[in-house]
Design goal:
The chain is of the alpha/beta class. 28% of the residues lie in helices and 26% in strands. The strands form seven sheets. A seven-stranded mixed beta sheet has the order 15-16-19-14-23-20-22. It has a five-stranded parallel beta sheet with strand order 8-7-6-12-25, with helices on one face. Strands 2-3-1-4 form a four-stranded antiparallel beta sheet. Bound molecules: flavin-adenine dinucleotide. The site of flavin-adenine dinucleotide has 46 residues, from helix 3, strand 7, strand 9, strand 18 and helix 13. Flavin-adenine dinucleotide binds next to helix 3, strand 7, strand 9, strand 18 and helix 13.
Length: 534
């Protein structure tokens, strides 16, 4: 197999153009090309000329000759094949339990189920389809279900999202690709395997996570919904089971297990309290807070693609960052092209926002979180969960100034520190009711000053980024976990048999990196144990 990099083609090219370019690069005839596989495709807007850039793997007749004829433009393709470990030698007497069916828990469960471990997944929320109705009802009526919402339920926090799958994690053993392949097996479009910045969109994600769950069940696993882990049973420093509460009956019960995966996500605050009370070692971790900011998508397209860009291009994305004079980093996060701001609350009397898009990204606004990193120095207190309390304080304030609705403010008014009285040309695209307010008052003065300075600074990167009628919504508080649940080199907590996993445990940030961490935990369990139960 040969690999050719940096094949550049105009945005309106056809698949035949790509084939033609390959044939010319290798100086071969069409019948000599046996197979062409796109491994990477990215849109390059640098230098004012828009082009797609390809990396392809090809199978050809007379490979050695083609390699020579390419005059260094081709190379032998080297691929990393992901391998799941063979079962270990220690006996596993009882089925492993996974708390949480977000990306970390689902992918961990799927890998263990494929290897014959028949895992039991406990999920406090609802199955994806039912959850989607509960979330739509919340956005329409404001009636929040604290156990099934944008944060909790099948598929986890990422289900109502833009479903961006890119990650900064550089995984040497091919877990990243494996995660994308498992998404495709569950119904995701093939393009995610080679798109530089793949995304799924909420409309695709609901079906995909449902298919994954059904596969786990077909392979002997089990997913229990409306089942909240409310305590851990620990004996002689080792996990022996989980106490669970059934959402419908309110009754508590017990699930015995010697291996328990904690894939609870960054919003499971009651579970963090329980872990602290149980003495599970944790430490405070930096995270970021801020606002969600909306601009017209057309303005972003013009900025990223230039005037007169082809209509065939997707809604443009951006990533901006600025250092303030005081040395604070202000940056964009979880940017949603053609998307919506969502009321992403999970606790009554608290209001948090986030962003989502549908696969088509066809909304009229672009939005992203504009956030600033906070540390214990910002919110005081030495308690390991002080960060959670800080998030709660901000969210209570947001709920108060919005009177239960999403508080919004124009950037110009934010800079003046006055409540907005009317909208400008940018009409908010928000899932959930919203209300004009003074979002600036949510934050300690130092943080709102940093946000203002940072956003103004980003206008040198994207013209009009600081336009006075850009719309800010508050509060973006769930950007990552405020704690890390400690684990050792075998990925186990000091409580033997307990495996902290994913974003909530502080080892991931995003759908794909959480899924990768799920694979790591499944591998750690498989490497050590062999299933000895029917
Ligand atoms: C609105 C929104 C949009 C996002 N957009 C993107 C995006 O486009 N791309 C991206 O990469 N990331 C995105 N993220 C972040 C991404 O969703 C998370 O990083 C990822 O879901 C973390 O996966 P996880 O499995 O570790 O935790 P989660 O997804 O949070 O899943 C944890 C699960 O555990 C369950 N749980 C918690 N406590 C208990 C308990 N005690 N008992 C039983 N079950 C429990 C929860 O109900 C939840 O389903 C977004 C997040 C949100 C909220």
């Amino acid at each position: 197999m040969l690999r050719i990099r940096e094949l550049k083609l105009p945005v309106d090219h056809t698949p035949e153009d790509l084939t033609g370019k390959v044939l010319r690069t290798l100086r071969i005839r069409p019948e000599e090309l046996l197979r062409l596989e796109i491994r990477r495709r990215s849109l390059d807007a640098r230098g004012g000329e828009l082009r797609y850039v390809y990396l392809v793997d090809v199978e050809v007749k007379r490979e050695q000759a083609a390699l020579k004829q390419s005059r260094g433009k081709a190379e032998r393709a080297v691929r990393t094949q992901y391998r799941f470990p063979e079962p270990g030698t220690e006996r596993m007497e009882r089925r492993p339990v996974i708390i949480g069916a977000g990306p970390a828990g689902l992918f961990c469960g799927l890998m263990l189920a494929r290897a014959g471990y028949a895992p039991i997944l406990l999920e406090r929320g609802e199955p994806a389809e039912k959850r989607a109705r509960t979330v739509e009802r919340f956005w329409l009526t404001g009636a929040l279900d604290p156990s099934s919402n944008v944060q909790f339920g099948e598929g986890g926090a990422g289900t109502f999202s833009d479903g961006k799958l890119n990650t900064m994690v550089k995984d040497p053993v091919g877990r990243n690709r494996k995660v994308l392949e498992l998404f495709v097996e569950a119904g995701a479009p093939e393009e995610i395997l080679y798109e530089n910045k793949p995304h799924l969109g909420t409309d695709e994600l609901i079906g995909i996570v449902t298919n994954m769950r059904r596969k786990i069940e077909r392979l002997g696993g089990e997913v229990r919904f409306g089942c909240q882990a409310e305590d851990l049973q620990v004996q002689d420093g080792r996990i022996r089971g989980v106490t669970v509460r059934d959402k419908d009956t309110g009754e508590s019960g017990s699930v015995e297990a010697d291996q328990v995966v904690l894939a609870i996500g960054h919003s499971a605050r009651d579970t963090f309290d329980m872990l602290k009370a149980r003495g599970v070692p944790m430490q405070a971790k930096a995270f970021a807070v801020g606002v969600r900011m909306e601009h017209p998508q057309e303005m972003i397209n013009q900025s990223q693609y230039g005037p007169g860009y082809p209509a065939s291009l997707p809604a443009a994305a951006y990533k901006v960052t600025r250092q303030t004079g005081a040395g604070r980093g202000v940056y964009s996060f979880c940017m949603c092209p053609g998307g919506y701001v969502v009321n992403a609350s999970s606790e009554p009397g608290h209001l948090a926002v986030n962003g989502m898009s549908y696969r088509a990204r066809a909304g009229k606004n672009a939005n992203s979180a504009m956030i600033v990193t906070v540390t214990p120095a910002d919110y005081g207190g030495t308690d390991v969960l002080a960060g959670v309390e800080f998030q709660r304080r901000l969210e209570r304030a947001a709920f108060r100034i919005g009177e239960g609705q999403v508080p919004v403010q124009l950037f110009g008014d934010f800079c003046s520190g006055v409540p907005s009285a009317a909208l400008g040309d940018v009409e908010p695209c928000i899932k959930g009711a919203y209300r004009l307010a003074n979002v600036r008052e949510l934050f300690p003065a130092e943080l709102s000053a940093a946000l203002e300075e940072g956003i103004r600074g980003c206008a040198s990167l994207i013209r009009g980024f600081d336009r006075p009628d850009a719309v800010l919504s508050g509060v973006e508080s769930r950007t990552s976990s405020p704690v890390r649940i400690l684990r050792d080199g075998h990925l186990e907590s000091a409580v033997g048999g307990l495996y902290p996993c994913g974003e909530g445990a502080g080892y991931a940030g995003g759908i794909t990196s959480a899924a990768i961490d799920g694979l790591k935990i499944a591998e750690a369990i498989a490497k050590k144990y062999m299933p000895c139960y029917d």
